[in-house]
Amino acid sequence: MMSNASSFLGISTNTIRAPIHYPVLQKLLSIFSNGFHYQRNRLRFSSSYHSLQRSQSHGLTICDPISSKPRNKFLLQTHHQCSRSETIDSVPKEIDTELLPFLRIYKDGSVERLMGSPYVPPTLDDPDSGVSSKDITISQNPLISARLFLPKLNEPHKKIPILVYYHGGAFCVESAFSFDHHRFLNSLVSQAKVVAVSVEYRMAPEHSLPIAYDDSWAALNWVALHFADNGITEEPWLINHGDPNRLFLGGDSAGANIAHNVAMRVGKEGLPNGINLLGVFLTHPFFWGSKPIEGDACEEPEKDLACLVWDMAYPSAPGGIDNPVINPVAPEAPSLAGLGCSRVLVSVSENDELRHRGLGYYEAVKRSGFEGEAELVEVEGEDHAFHILKFETRKAKELTKKLADFLLK
């Protein structure tokens, strides 16, 4: 999930800093405050480390995070200056590169993630949704894991659709085990009555793309092999409840990008035993490109935060930001008629900086000769990934219901 502060980026050799004007700061705070943990007055930094800062006349500075689990917390300090780069418990480490507000890379190779909701354990019979969840290992080498979700069923042997889900987070933050995505999938699984496999793919910068794409493809094949001749019987929830004739992919933001690319690979290579992919939903997909597109206020896409994220996630991408995996409408991109499914849903939000890219993708699917059904859901007055970050709001619940309806068709 990404929030774009690109209009105010100032870039130095190794550090990407974003001095934020007040309205943009308000927007970032509203996004961060949903699911992220705040710590007060635990850490002091030199002023050169300031990342997101309002003018001092307003007396508020967002400084840098600290956590024993680097994904889980975001430090908010309410004074004008952050002073020294030292912690109470440790000797300061030297920063090599920062990609704010997402992460910091140190010269010793360690990575500190500055955003993300906390990890939560799986639950058996969740009290709010009735959904049960558990964590499983898909592959030991490479290590690919997942969280499985099963709705409460009145008929214990009923076969239900299968959803393979890819979480968002700019290819570098969040998790299949995070609070935000766990809560969202509990709700979606309860309403849609699907068995869901939320994939924990390996992330950048420790594991550059295309590793996340390969992990996600391997996870889908692992699911499909449960229904192939001479396949596997590792997961009883899939064997006992999954209907391979109703197999779906879904994802938000970077996860929606992954879902698109996995669907394209299905169209090219197929799945074991001829199993078909019925549908794919993409919420607020992370697509980008080097050229401005109609209606988009971003006049220099290659200087945008989205481009900087892509360069971090896939530094060796042939074609850079116009590689077809991030720009599916680039001149060299394969036809979207090759999507390996019969139904596609694309969801965009009015205030999301990625909105026009999502709209362009939907229109390109329709023009491509894609023989299936393409559906567009537009939500007014909302930001990127609001259905996950603002989970309790009316519009978030309405979008989750739309996604559930798509899976129920």
List keywords for this structure.
alpha/beta; five-stranded mixed β-sheet; 17 strands
How is this structure best summarized?
This protein is α/β, with parallel strands linked by helices.
Structure notes:
This protein is an alpha/beta fold and 409 residues long. Helix content is 25%, strand content 22%. The chain has 9 helices and 17 strands. An 8-stranded mixed β-sheet has the order 10-11-13-12-14-15-16-17, with helices on both faces. Strands 1-2-7-8-9 form a 5-stranded mixed β-sheet, covered by helices on one side. Helix 2 (179-192) packs across helix 9 and helix 3 (211-225) packs across helix 5.
Oligomer: single chain
Helix content: 25-40%
Order of helices and strands: EEHEEEEEEEEEEHEHHEHEHEHEHH
Which regions are unreliable across 5 or more consecutive residues at pLDDT < 50? 2-88
Number of strands: 17
Strand content: 15-25%
How are the strands of the biggest sheet laid out side by side? 10-11-13-12-14-15-16-17
Describe the main β-sheet briefly. 8 strands, mixed
Radius of gyration: 21 Å
